[in-house]
Design brief:
By secondary structure, this protein is an alpha/beta fold. Helix content is 49%, strand content 20%.
Protein backbone atom coordinates (compact mmCIF):
# COMPACT_ATOMS: atom_id res chain seq x y z
CA UNK A 1 0.00 0.00 0.00
CA UNK A 2 1.35 3.42 -0.90
CA UNK A 3 0.99 6.25 1.60
CA UNK A 4 0.79 9.98 0.96
CA UNK A 5 1.69 12.49 3.64
CA UNK A 6 0.76 16.18 3.59
CA UNK A 7 2.48 18.54 6.03
CA UNK A 8 6.08 18.26 7.16
CA UNK A 9 6.06 20.67 10.08
CA UNK A 10 7.26 19.91 13.59
CA UNK A 11 4.88 17.00 14.14
CA UNK A 12 4.44 15.85 10.55
CA UNK A 13 8.16 15.50 9.93
CA UNK A 14 8.54 13.04 12.80
CA UNK A 15 5.52 11.05 11.69
CA UNK A 16 6.77 10.87 8.10
CA UNK A 17 10.24 9.84 9.30
CA UNK A 18 8.69 7.02 11.34
CA UNK A 19 6.72 5.77 8.34
CA UNK A 20 9.89 5.69 6.26
CA UNK A 21 11.82 3.88 9.00
CA UNK A 22 9.15 1.16 8.94
CA UNK A 23 9.54 0.72 5.18
CA UNK A 24 6.45 2.58 3.98
CA UNK A 25 6.11 3.42 0.29
CA UNK A 26 5.81 7.13 1.09
CA UNK A 27 5.09 10.16 -1.09
CA UNK A 28 5.16 13.58 0.56
CA UNK A 29 3.94 17.11 -0.10
CA UNK A 30 4.44 20.32 1.85
CA UNK A 31 4.74 23.97 0.88
CA UNK A 32 8.49 24.07 1.52
CA UNK A 33 10.36 22.44 -1.36
CA UNK A 34 13.53 21.90 0.69
CA UNK A 35 11.57 19.71 3.12
CA UNK A 36 10.31 17.59 0.23
CA UNK A 37 13.86 17.27 -1.10
CA UNK A 38 15.14 16.23 2.34
CA UNK A 39 12.52 13.46 2.47
CA UNK A 40 13.46 12.33 -1.05
CA UNK A 41 17.05 12.03 0.18
CA UNK A 42 15.74 9.73 2.95
CA UNK A 43 13.91 7.49 0.47
CA UNK A 44 10.47 9.06 0.06
CA UNK A 45 8.96 10.24 -3.20
CA UNK A 46 7.96 13.86 -3.70
CA UNK A 47 4.78 15.36 -5.11
CA UNK A 48 4.36 18.71 -6.86
CA UNK A 49 0.92 19.37 -5.35
CA UNK A 50 -1.76 17.79 -3.20
CA UNK A 51 -3.59 16.69 -6.34
CA UNK A 52 -0.39 15.14 -7.68
CA UNK A 53 0.10 13.30 -4.39
CA UNK A 54 -3.44 11.91 -4.28
CA UNK A 55 -3.12 10.57 -7.81
CA UNK A 56 -0.10 8.47 -6.78
CA UNK A 57 -1.11 6.87 -3.47
CA UNK A 58 -3.67 4.57 -1.88
CA UNK A 59 -4.14 6.48 1.38
CA UNK A 60 -3.37 10.05 2.48
CA UNK A 61 -2.38 11.22 5.95
CA UNK A 62 -2.65 14.93 6.72
CA UNK A 63 -0.81 16.79 9.47
CA UNK A 64 -1.64 20.48 9.20
CA UNK A 65 -2.06 23.15 11.89
CA UNK A 66 -5.60 24.39 11.36
CA UNK A 67 -8.99 23.14 10.22
CA UNK A 68 -8.88 25.79 7.49
CA UNK A 69 -5.74 24.19 6.04
CA UNK A 70 -7.36 20.75 6.27
CA UNK A 71 -10.39 22.06 4.39
CA UNK A 72 -8.17 23.59 1.70
CA UNK A 73 -6.34 20.28 1.36
CA UNK A 74 -9.61 18.38 0.89
CA UNK A 75 -11.05 20.91 -1.55
CA UNK A 76 -7.94 20.85 -3.73
CA UNK A 77 -8.32 17.11 -4.23
CA UNK A 78 -11.92 17.55 -5.38
CA UNK A 79 -11.02 19.81 -8.32
Amino acid sequence: MSVGFVGLGNMGQGMADNLLSKGADLTVFTRTQSKIEAMIDKGAKGAASISDLTSKVDVVLVCLQTSRLHAFCCLETME
